[in-house]
Specification:
The complex is a heterodimer. Chain A has helices spanning about 40-50, 70-75, 95-100, 100-105, 115-125, 140-155, 170-185, 200-205, 220-225, 230-235; strands at about 5-10, 20-25, 30-35, 55-60, 65, 80, 160-165, 190-195, 205-210, 215-220, 240-245, 245-250. The longest helix of chain A has 15 residues, at about 170-185. Chain A has a six-stranded mixed beta sheet with strand order 6-7-8-3-9-10, sandwiched between helices. In chain A, helix 7 links the parallel strand 7 and strand 8 (about 190-195). Chain A is about 35% helix and about 25% strand. Chain A has a domain at about 85-155. Helix content of chain B is about 80%, strand content about 0%. The chains are: A alpha/beta, B mainly alpha. The interface of A and B includes residues 72, 75, 96, 107 and 116 of A.
């Protein structure tokens, strides 16, 4: 039982954005996908949700090839928290979270009790229940992102794909977002999180996969992956890595040529 | 337990109540509009005249006025108003833009060109004459939108921007054609102009029965698309990730909305602002959820156009205003208000 990616090649007509990419996501773990811009992180999510067809490669979800999933089937297996979620004006938080039930209801069937239970639960575990009747576009950035997470959870997926869910949020909400995700993972969900902030990734992920030019160049526990050499090479800037409470912590160094002369 | 029950009961009643109340209001408006006119027909006389009509025994002046003139006219206005407002709501939902209207893809300019061609060339081109003004308007409206869709196709999809651009470009070419026809046949220009402004003066049972079979299936498709349209407001990516076949739904909705629009324009001319203003007003009053917005837009579109036509035929009686002028007089200022609100955001 896992999401598996083997030998994936994919791109947008030009050179492949993902080339020989291998990856595995298990239930009950948070897998952090890190790497510089253009390394293929968002493309990976687009391929997994079938918005982009791969050029070649084997993709399976719980042993079943991705191509063999029906549209609603796939949406019941994988849910996405997009990078720039669009929240239409005028809809209440509950309306938006209820849309997460679409994969279970199709386009015509009315809500049943089990749907209402899933919606209530999604609201509860993301602490958005009190906001249920508020208009979502009037909420703060952190609250809005929780609503989007609640919508994804209402899908009752087996795997959650989060594409830079902490973008544009200030520290408290970044931490909250990952904490809510962690809480669901501890109940058996598998989560793939694309992150820019390496320290956040080191704190919250069980495993990290480092993407460099479309390939996973390192994979494993954060303390094993985040070495000063690897990060310096992949990100093209010198860093130090220190251990804080057994979590690696990445500290960027001012480039040599910009450093003040030694006294 | 009791709490769970009330919670589940509330959303359903809240969703249905406005539709029921609005439908009742439509009923009242239909009856009132049938009573009012050059001759006032009281409730008793109205009932017996309609009864006679249904049984096919139309006797006397009141029966004729009610059954042959007013009932078809009011029904036609209601059907056209419902069709335009429903199509407008669907267009606004598909394009995620409250300024979209059912004429966005060229249905109006196509219909206008077709109608003008018949009005100018009638008599000299027999097959055009046989097609008639409504037939030509209907065919040209559909052909225009079909051409716009073909022109806008990109890699199997229909991107909104190229649809709108193709619609605007083709629409202005056809409007130029209509203007040319008006200049070329100045004696027919007044007739063309009054058709373009829209009117129910030529309402008949025949026209009611020609619109209904096109309107009903199109309306059924549109009314069933509420949830799809709601989810599509999240953007194409998210809608697709929730399992909505976005391209297919969009195509089905555009085709259904265009059929409804073409049928409406064919029998009543180009009546503006109904498809723009009514869905927007309904959204402001009842919220943006399409599950509710679509049926309410249809009902209020019917109410609005029946009242507009009532005004058009009574205010200067015995002369008539083109109903398009009335809707524009009400709709224009509202539209400007809308634009200002958009800019203020």
């Amino acid at each position: 039982m896992s999401v598996e990616v083997r030998g994936l090649y994919a791109g947008y007509g030009g050179p492949d954005v993902l080339a020989a990419c291998d990856l595995r996501l298990d239930p009950g773990e948070v897998l952090g996908v890190i790497g510089p811009n253009g390394a293929g992180k968002s493309t990976l999510i687009r391929v997994l949700t079938r918005r982009l067809s791969p050029r070649s490669g084997r993709l399976t979800v719980d042993g079943r090839p991705l191509g063999r999933f029906g549209r609603l089937d796939l949406a019941r297996a994988l849910a996405v928290v997009p990078q720039v979620p669009e929240l239409p004006a005028g809809y209440s938080v509950r309306d938006l979270v209820a849309m997460g039930r679409t994969p279970h209801l199709g386009l015509l069937r009315p809500e049943r009790d089990e749907d209402r239970r899933a919606i209530e639960r999604a609201l509860r575990v993301t602490d958005t229940g009190a906001l249920a009747h508020r208009e979502a576009t009037r909420l703060s950035g952190g609250e809005r992102q929780r609503v989007v997470l609640a919508r994804a959870l209402a899908q009752e997926p087996r795997y959650l794909l989060l594409d830079e869910p902490t973008n544009h949020l200030y520290l408290r909400y970044q931490v909250e977002m990952l904490a809510y995700t962690r809480q669901e993972v501890d109940r058996g969900l598998g989560a793939l999180v694309v992150l820019h902030d390496l320290n956040l990734a080191a704190r919250f992920c069980d495993r990290l996969a480092v993407l460099e030019r479309g390939r996973v160049v390192a994979e494993g526990a954060p303390e094993a992956v985040l070495s000063a050499e690897l990060v310096s090479r992949v990100y093209g800037t010198e860093v130090d890595v220190r251990s804080v409470d057994a979590h690696p912590t990445v500290l960027p160094r001012l480039p040599r040529r910009m450093r003040p002369p030694d006294p | 337990m009791a709490r769970v029950l009330t919670r589940t009961a509330v959303p359903t009643t809240r969703a249905v109540a406005p539709v029921l109340v609005s439908t009742a209001a439509l009923g009242v408006v239909l009856v009132a509009a049938t009573s009012v006119g050059s001759v006032w027909v009281g409730p008793g006389a109205l009932l017996s005249a309609v009864g006679d009509g249904v049984r096919g025994q139309v006797h006397g002046t009141v029966d004729t006025i009610v059954w042959q003139l007013r009932v078809p006219r009011v029904l036609l206005a209601a059907l056209v108003g419902a069709a335009l407002a429903l199509a407008g709501a669907a267009f606004q939902g598909v394009f995620r833009n409250p300024l979209a209207d059912p004429y966005l893809l060229g249905a109006a300019s196509g219909a206008g060109f077709g109608a003008s061609a018949v009005l100018v060339l009638a008599g000299s081109v027999p097959w055009l004459t046989r097609l008639g003004v409504p037939g030509a308007a209907f065919v040209c409206a559909l052909a225009t939108v079909a051409a716009v869709m073909v022109l806008a196709r990109r890699d199997g999809g229909l991107p909104a921007v190229s649809l709108i651009l193709a619609g605007v470009v083709l629409g202005s070419s056809l409007s130029a054609g209509t203007s040319f026809l008006m200049l070329a046949a100045r004696d027919r220009a007044a007739g063309i102009l009054s058709w373009l402004l829209g009117s129910f003066a030529f309402a008949s049972w025949e026209r009611v029965l020609s619109v209904a079979p096109l309107f009903l299936p199109a309306a059924a498709v549109l009314l069933l698309a509420g949830r799809a349209l709601d989810v599509m407001q999240l953007g194409e990516e998210s809608a697709a990730q929730l399992g909505v076949p976005v391209e297919r739904v969009r195509l089905a909705l555009l085709v259904a909305a265009t059929l409804a629009t073409a049928a409406a324009v064919a029998v009543a001319g180009v009546i503006g602002f109904v498809g723009l203003v009514v869905p927007h007003a309904v959204r402001l009053a009842f919220g943006p959820r399409h599950v509710r917005l679509l049926p309410l837009a249809a009902v209020w579109g019917a109410i609005f156009l029946v009242l507009a036509d009532l005004f058009a035929r009574t205010v200067l009686a015995p002369a008539e205003l083109p109903v398009g002028i009335v809707t524009a007089l009400v709709g224009g200022p509202f539209f400007l208000l809308l634009l200002r609100r958009q800019h203020a955001r």
